[in-house]
Fold this sequence. Notes:
Structural class of chain A: alpha/beta
Low-confidence stretches of chain A: none
Order of helices and strands of chain A: EHHHHHEHEHHEHEEH
Mean pLDDT of chain A: 95
Largest interface: A-B, 23 and 23 residues
CATH superfamily of the largest domain in chain A: HAD superfamily/HAD-like
Oligomer: homodimer
CATH architecture of the largest domain in chain A: 3-Layer(aba) Sandwich
Radius of gyration of chain A: 20 Å
Distance between the termini of chain A: 6 Å
CATH class of the largest domain in chain A: Alpha Beta
CATH topology of the largest domain in chain A: Rossmann fold
Amino acid sequence: MIKLILFDLDDCLFDITELGSYARAEALNEMIKYGLKVDFKTGLAMLREVVSEYGSNHPGHFNIVLTRLKSLYPESLGNIPEEKLVAAAVIAYHRVKVRNIKTFPDVVPFLIKVRKNYPQIKIAILTDGIPVKQFEKILRLRIDSYFDDIIISDDIGIRKPNPRLFSYAVDKMKVGLEETLMVGDRIDNDIIPARSINIHTVLIHRETKYDVDKDQVRDSQPEFEIRSLSELFPILENLKGKK
Amino acid sequence: MIKLILFDLDDCLFDITELGSYARAEALNEMIKYGLKVDFKTGLAMLREVVSEYGSNHPGHFNIVLTRLKSLYPESLGNIPEEKLVAAAVIAYHRVKVRNIKTFPDVVPFLIKVRKNYPQIKIAILTDGIPVKQFEKILRLRIDSYFDDIIISDDIGIRKPNPRLFSYAVDKMKVGLEETLMVGDRIDNDIIPARSINIHTVLIHRETKYDVDKDQVRDSQPEFEIRSLSELFPILENLKGKK
């Protein structure tokens, strides 16, 4: 019997892969509009490179791209102040993120239905990331009131894939490990650690950055694989008989 | 004959005093909406206190207010995570700033007219502040294309009221000190340093944070005082005969 469902946030409840990629493209476009001399394709490849090298949480992506451009193509900035281009990029990036952030279409219908039909099941978000930034996403997505708790790893000082983050969440919600279901998009960060301590696991395919092919050879297998949260209901029924 | 007009940005070309104060009130409102238990008046007084103690550029105003509230009224946060309240405040603050930033009504008409009628006069912004943040304001205000240059003190490493920032700007624009007019809202940061090196000075009254009363006793007097940028035209005519 499942008493707690833990959800990953990024690329599980909303499409951060697409949103980030769209926002970065718009930011680059805006810098070009303000006079940056770089071919869009070259610029975008460089921006993606920087994001993957410095990590998606680094605050200086646009500065690094401009530094890199200056060293490779010394004429690309002309006389335009670097900070003007960064400001233009930040405005565009932020505008795209604020206007376009939205949950996957199955999320709110699922949350409403699980609340109504399974009042005994607690639901929580279990996510990595900078706490204020993660809360900002959750509030902008307008989903905070559906959850019994929101657990952000940097508040605990234990990050995914450390299984102790998962057992912390289970203890906090006062349920058992076998009464818990972890839903996430990543084999490495969500499925492996949860399975290692006997939490039930569901891999969700969202066709985003870390999505793995169904037939791909993997280190570990989740118990269930779904494409939509509505598929969780038969799984909850399936696990009802088990302890 | 004036060949260069230097403009301060904040509270000279747009009302940052009002915008900041409105944005902070909305941010506090939003935290209260998310469950912060504090009387609006008490909370706003505390937020203002923090801004004045830590400076308006400090990135952690909302965190500091919450820390202060917790120590004075231990029950004020209840079980709400601090980062959730900060995220709510940041979203509201940003929304208000983005939607409501606008130049004073006399600014664009002045810029158009000076461009048309005084093509020999260069115009530039001379401002303190974090360069990307200042450019962000200028781009959101949509006034960057009117200016021949935008000089931000932290790019030079010399801040107001150091007169060398003003002589740097004059040298960069290739004019003489007596051919330059500084327009700003602050006696201490704009008028005194400009006068000290023989730049012509205009104090603009915008009824904002640092505005001084016309009859108030002051350390230094500007040559001219105005309430609207349209009043600059007779001043330009007045200074035409002089060297």
